[in-house]
Amino acid sequence: MRSKKLALLLSAAMVISTLGGCGSSSASNEASAPAADKSASASTESSGTGNADEAEASKPITIDFWNSWTGSDGDTLVELVKQFNDENPWNITVNMDISSSFAEKLSTSLPTGDASPLILMGNGDRFKYQEYLLPINDIWTNTQLKEEDFNTNSLNTGRIEEDLYSLPFQNSLYYMYWNKDLFEKAGLDPEAPPQSFEEWTEMAAKITDPDSNVYGSGLFMAYGNQEMCLMQQMGGLAVEEQGDGTYKVNIAGNDGYKKYLEWMKALYTNGDNPQENEIDSMFKAGQIGIMVNGPWLAPGADESGVNFGMCKIFGQEPLGDVAGFFITSSATEEEKLACERFLQWWYTGNEGCAVENTAVSTWSLKLGFPTTYVPTAECDAYKANERLAALNLDDNSKDSIWITTSPEFKGWGDLVTIIGNMTQAVVFDTTVEDAMTQAQEDAEKAVTTYEGADALAK
């Protein structure tokens, strides 16, 4: 997707067993409702409220929906879209295409107006494609959705200045995973993951077993988001907005980053961390003791039979980014309204649907993603979910804590790559100082490229 992180979405297929009661009776009621007169039809068509009269008046329409959810969680997305097609009251059919070449398709189809009306991507890419995206400020009047039902911080990552361009699909936050069986085999308490960088090092050394191809540590060598989850704890953001429209690059001379890179390098030098990036696959194969990744890994690890735990990294609030639903400029007015109705259904279901049975709640409850939607966070099923309770933010007003740069920085995706290049260079024996100097230069160039020559703070 927008970054290597999203291309790593590797979670297991889940059976959607609790969705049957979500709006099925409502749909049948609408099918038997009397036809509305033309004046009523015009009124409900503009309101987007989805009542029975409007369902009778709606003409069938098909909209395309593109995304890159090629992992097993994509199977859940397929099931949910199928459910929408079966039960929505507006005669809308969503034709979804999940593709590993999603970015390439967007690059070639957006300029020609041939892209799908609805897409799913990281909010960090909203600047990259802004001229081909439609503001959706009118979604609050076109649908029954309410702005106050969304976490403000997550919602704001989909804005450009005052315009809203996306609704949050998921918080892609990062957590610590540990293999309880490997902990026990190494004589460690399987219920006590490391609470510091020092404990990570000590535990990793005890877990590593070269004869079994087992490594105590599972740092990703070249994926900036995973590295920044730890690095940011020591040294803060790599690029930070200064409150006056300028940006400061905080890489060269950052003692926290230097300390992190030296710590990371030692794990590789000691043989406690493999020199590859397929760490998630190795974790699911029972070969990694401690690692950092997002909730998308958990279903796959469950399916593989790994006995693992998940928690916040060293007890700190999780870092990450937000993926969102966008409507492209390729959409006609009718397609735009159909997209907005799909989004209404995603968050609220049909009339009478219980909160825990909506698509947005299913995504959290089945796949373990902390929600950005307040009604889901407040429902009993969510509160009772042990894994979500361990991962949820202490202050729900901070439901999205942006990683690597300030969220308004247009070159966020480039910085993810720059950080990954820096960490990989250190692994392959570039000195920490030289790698940080190069990353500083690359990041400063990104600032001037995306924000203008005068945007670099002195």
Automatic annotation (TrEMBL):
Residues 1-27 form the signal peptide. Residues 26-55 are annotated as: Disordered. SUPFAM superfamilies: Periplasmic binding protein-like II. Pfam families: SBP_bac_8. Gene3D superfamilies: Periplasmic binding protein-like II. Keywords: Signal. Residues 26-52 have a biased composition (Low complexity). InterPro entries: Bact_solute-bd_prot1 (IPR050490), SBP (IPR006059). The keyword Signal applies. This is ABC transporter substrate-binding protein. It comes from Eisenbergiella tayi. The lineage of its organism: Bacteria, Bacillati, Bacillota, Clostridia, Lachnospirales.
